[in-house]
Amino acid sequence: MKSINIILASLALAGGLTSCADKLDVQNINNQTTYDFGNTKSDLEEAVIACYNRIRLEGTFARVGYTMDPTRGDEVWNASQQWYLPYDNLNVSATDEIGCQWIWRDCYHVVNRTNFVLSKVDGVNLSTDDYNQIKGQALFLRSLAYYTLTTYYQTVPLFLNYSDYSDINTMYAANSTQDEVFDQIESDLQEAMNMLPSRDKGGEWAGGRATCGAAAGYLARCYMFRHKFSQAYDVLKKIIAGNYGKYELMADYGYNFREDTENNAESLFEVQFMDYGTGGTDEEWTPVNISVEATQGHAVESNYASGLLGSWGDLAGSPWLYNLYKAENCTDGTLDPRLYWTLVTYEPEYSVYTGAKTAAYPDGDPRSNVVYQQEISSTYDAMSNSGNGGISIAKYTNARNNIYNAITTGLHCGINLRLMRYVDVLLLAAECENELNGPTQTAIDYINQVRRRVALADLKLSDFPSADALFEQIANVERPKELGCENGRGIDLIRWGFFYSSDRMQQLVEHGRYLLDNNPDNNSICDDLSNRSDAPSSFSYYITGHEYFPIATSTLDENPNLTGNCANKQEDNGTWFKAQGWSVRPRVNL
After folding, report:
1. Is 345 exposed, middle or buried (0-12, 13-18, 19+ CB in 10 A)?
2. Residue 29: its pLDDT value, please?
3. What's residue 222's pLDDT?
4. Residue 529's pLDDT band (boundaries 50, 70, 90)?
5. Measured between alpha carbons, how far is 105 from 118 in angstroms, rounded to an integer?
6. CA–CA separation, 90 and 544 (whole Å)
7. Beta 267-271 vs 417-421: how paired, if at all?
8. What is the pLDDT of residues 566-580, one digit of tens each?
9. Which residue in 117, 302, 480, 530 has a CA-CA distance of 20 to 30 Å to 431?
């Protein structure tokens, strides 16, 4: 009996220990590690969604990651004369956090998450379609992050393996050259193009996910930045032919800047934000804030919109851009409708247009002098900043949509940011054709497709005696009027080499002139200031090398293998630019 009791006790003890061991092995689903997670299709699909989430941060595209590029362009200036000012003046210190740290930080969050997906996807049993879709999206989003990083900071570290973060010798990576970064981006995008479905598949592929068309569009942009015009043109023509899905211009230009017309046929890729009022109340300004009650909107409106209606009023449209719109009317004599959707100004004609059938709006013109549900009677009523004046920006705000009457600053605006539209494909194709063969009727035809959408008269080839003249029309008329105040103008100025030519720099100075004016009775904020030497210009303060933002001092201090870029060293990139065999097209008076 004693022996039996000993055996039973032993079995009970063993069973108890076994039971404890089993409990100790239970996985806490709320505390998974990167080793435990990512080993199933469901895990990887969740991880891809987490990658998309990171492009909605303040440093990616929810605020400064988007607005910093138009700020360094000639279409936007810093009306508040604070916060963004050194970025607008192209002379920011490497100790400033806003652009030097936040964009860098949040883009590398995207890189980190996409690298995790890419490190896991080959080890999971997936169908060919699932494998291609998961990997293709990760490759595209990593490329988008690196495209942003290298066009803002020039020379940045390349992290391509998730395991690099676990070893101090690889975690502190040195700068890669810009060519090395672009080589990797192009490789990733080429692979993604062959893996991802087109928007024609429907469902989420037509509703915001990265597609082969998005990858093709960004690949063309990379080629354009590196003056690979033949390669870019080949991709652009395939997009136009529908090889990567059907794209077309929306009949109404304004449909590109509204909540209720998102992910439309003109959009190659856009950042998804929840419609106003449908998110929570918590604002996720930094990556460490992860709230189920997040607002899930962006703060571009808080920078662009009228300070008189509650925004921060930091940024304003340039008088040069305003007068560019006013210089040419539609075929029926009405104003270019792109002015209405880009800048908020009082125009007497808008009150006449309301509901009438015009060339640009054959079904009835929606334009009026109502802004955020309020009737305005002068341009000053719509100013970007109540202290210094400035023309308020309408794009990616609800100034024209009138869904509320006052601005709540922060991450609340729900209009998706269209990072690439089909119109850019057409204008880039015109630029390629002109660079390779121009000027030609083919290039003119691409441009006229864009102009006809807004009822402007066709251009004629005979009006452009040289490729230089047609380039001037593309660079300083067609692109700013179509894409004004959108992300990309600063990148264009760099790829065209405008910072490396004295006559082009003088042109930028003229474009960038503004007038500080707090007199409500003075409408001179809209005056043509291009030849006013007494009006200040953002570009008058430019420091050599600061077409890029410096790498933050704190980042350099933390990483002994990292060196400063051209902005840190105040180095002129003109010599390098010309050594590539590239030239800056001379200024032409049209």
Report:
1. buried
2. 62
3. 98
4. very high
5. 20
6. 9
7. antiparallel
8. 999 999 999 999 999
9. 530
Q: What is the dihedral of CA 26, 32, 34, 37, to 10 degrees?
A: 70
Pairing of strands 370-371, 374-375: antiparallel
Give the amino acid at 477.
V
pLDDT in tens, 145-204: 999 999 999 999 999 999 998 888 889 999 999 999 999 999 999 999 999 999 999 999
Q: How far apart are CA 207 and CA 75, in angstroms?
A: 30
- Residue (of 155, 154, 172) closest to 164 by Cα position: 172
CB 327: neighbour CB atoms within 10 A?
11
Q: Report pLDDT for 41.
A: 97
Show the 3-state SS of 294-337: ECCCECHHHHHCCHHHCCCCCEEECHHHHHHHHCCCCCCCCCCH
Question: What pLDDT, on a 0 to 100 scale, did the predictor assign at position 144?
Answer: 98
More confident residue, 136 or 532: 136
Could you say which DSSP state residue 82 is in? Answer: S
What 3-state DSSP class applies to 498? Answer: helix
Rounded-to-integer distance, Cα 381 and Cα 22, Å: 70
- Report d(CA 349, CA 329) in Å as an integer: 12
* Nearest to 144, CA basis, from 415, 411, 420: 420
Residues 274, 205: Cα–Cα separation, whole Å: 17
DSSP state of 370: E
Q: What local confidence, expressed as pLDDT, does residue 382 receive? A: 64
| Measured CA angle at 482 (ends 375, 467), to 5 deg | 150
- Asked if 60 contacts 69 with a C-beta cutoff of 8 angstroms, the reply is no
Q: Which amino acid is at 180?
A: E
Selection from 123, 153, 148, 150 nearest residue 135 by Cα? 123
For residues 250 and 271, what is the distance between their CA atoms, to the nearest angstrom?
18
For residue 351, give every residue at least 6 positions away whose Cβ sits within 8 Å of its Cβ, in sequence order, or none.
368, 369
Over range 122-140, report the average pLDDT.
98
Would strands 417-421 and 374-375 be described as parallel, antiparallel, or unpaired? Answer: unpaired
Q: Could you say which DSSP state residue 40 is in?
A: S
Q: Omega into 287 within 30° of 0, i.e. cis?
A: no
- Given a cut of 80, whether residue 519 has pLDDT beyond it is no
21 — pLDDT class (breaks 50, 70, 90)? very low
94 touches 553 (CB < 8 A): yes
Q: What is the pLDDT of residue 526?
A: 87
∠ CA 334-339-342, rounded to 5°: 160
Q: What average pLDDT does the structure give for the chain?
A: 92
What pLDDT, on a 0 to 100 scale, did the predictor assign at position 306? 87
Would you call 54 helix, strand, or coil by DSSP?
helix
Tokens for 153, please give them.
């900071």
**What value, to the nearest 5°, has the Cα angle with vertex 350 and ends 347 and 356?**
160
**Residues 393, 446: Cα–Cα separation, whole Å:** 27
Contact 103, 555 (CB under 8 A): no
* Single-letter residue type at 470: L
Angle formed at CA 370 by CA 366 and CA 373, multiple of 5 degrees: 110
The interaxial angle of helices 178-195 and 128-153, nearest 10 deg, is 150
What single-letter DSSP state applies at residue 165? G
